[in-house]
Amino acid sequence: MRNWCMRHPVWFMALYALFYLLCFHFLEKTILVPDLWVHCRLDDLIPFCKYAIIPYVMWFPWIPFTLFYILRHAPRSDFWRLCLPLFAGMTLSLLFYVMVPNGLALRPHSIAGNDIFAEAVRTLYRHDTPTNVCPSIHVFNSVTLMLAYYRCSCFDAPRRRWMRPAAAGLCLAITLSTMLLKQHSVIDVVFGILLALALDYLAAVVETETSPLHHRHRKERLPEWW
Description:
Layout: H1 2-7, H2 9-30, E1 36-37, H3 41-45, H4 53-73, H5 76-99, E2 102-103, H6 116-127, H7 137-151, H8 163-180, H9 186-210, H10 212-221
Helix pairs in contact: 2-5, 4-5, 4-7, 4-8, 5-7, 5-9, 7-8, 7-9
């Protein structure tokens, strides 16, 4: 299975996307009354802003764009280094939603206006229930992608360096949008960030432990009788 994934990275991404979407859709339809309501006092201080829908929806194309861009322009190891924490974190989030069904009650009762932004938010609310929110997958994915931009060697090229601050800015905008749209609590955001940092660190440890250079140095340190 591992060798098949290595040879067919596009199919691997497609199959995982199908798995994730089916699981998330199932949870959205089955978890209607959460066991845990997520809320903190900071949530009440953050205003609702319908214009935040712009960076919020940019999250959807940003994920496949980054994955395919790194797959095409970076060493294959950089691609898998991104996939490991990204897909692991999304899977762990789904498992947490199953074990601790959670939701929030922060959305405004009505959205004023008939402009495209208000309509977009109303559409989002109709198709995305306020459940399965902690940790925020929007935030988790955004932070994980941003870290990849600063780690991958393909962005060292002068003509691509601008993509790093652009990724950081987009990550920040998406993170803020989740709270400004009342899609997530500050608590969801914090746990999304912590999950991204923790899994990125674990992926770095795994990468180091499995690298040929690490094994060569370890062999050189072993005593002769070993």
